[in-house]
Amino acid sequence: MNKQTAIIAYIGTQTDGSSSGGIYVYRMNPSTGELDELSTAAAGINPTYLAIHPSKRYLYAANTIEGEGLISAFSIDPFTGGLTFMNSQPSGGSKPVHLLVDGAGKFVLAGNFGDGSVCVLPIQADGRLGAMTDFIRHSGSSVHPTRQQGPRVHSVTLDPASRYAVAAEYGADQLRVYRLDAECGKLLPSAVPSISVPAGSGPRHAAFHPSERWAYVINELGNTLMSYDYDPVQGILLLRETHATLPEGYAGPSFCADVHVHPDGTFVYGSNRGHNSIVIYAVEPDTGSLRLVGHEPTLGRAPRSFIIDPTGRYLYAAHQDTDNVVAFALNRQTGLLRPTGHSIKVPMPVCIKMVSLP
Fold first, then answer.
1. pTM value?
2. What Gene3D superfamilies does the record point to (predicted)?
């Protein structure tokens, strides 16, 4: 493998109720978008969501476990992309479903869906995780009779400068905004610490524009994407507009999942589970407003996660219900997607992350 050009994909899975072996490792062919399997790393129970250290030397996985969950650390082999388990630490809460690493590579932030809490874990010099430096449990509920009976953190997202973290409080229809103390690993209240979204929306994931001027939040229950103006100095989000993620006239069941901004900031993509599509919006470069481009069928059921590869040329949709990951070519001018004809079988894929090895 030429390590200067190797693009590696890591796929986190749900092991309960599936034949999954853990975290799957693939190499991307940049000419075709095809994924070639390299290895599989045993990673405990349900290593669902993944995050890669900025140094590209370590990977972290959220073990989504009832009761107290775990966050696990792995080293990345720079030649093979293979993973070696190093250690794990409790997440402090039940069912961690999302995590990330701050830009300086000092901390892992994780969200626990089961009890609506967030935690911060320090990253040691060798990439292992230390005992948590902060833990916050949310409160509140909302209108959905079964899915919003209590707090449920579905994601924690840092702005591009790693100054502020936005926790999507799915169960209480709130965005909780924290300032990250990058010295002590503490989450401190921001100038506007809580932002309400319409009742029954179920905010799930957020993504920031690379310019730091805008942020986008996708709502699972409301099937909407909300566009915000963002003040990176104070960490304040101001709602600009709300867009439906489903085509006009579609009346079937569907639930949003993931959202990503193209690396060059020109397009925003979101996934619909039920309609089984990627919705595509163009970003107005002066205001951050969105214009609907279209919908692309994902060729599988329940696209829980997707990713745009580091070159910006391909999008990969991971389908939890049909055990497949499908590759699409991405038109950089129009934002439209085209199936490449390449797909892989992976048991219950939940998250896909990609990295160019140094």
1. 0.97
2. YVTN repeat-like/Quinoprotein amine dehydrogenase
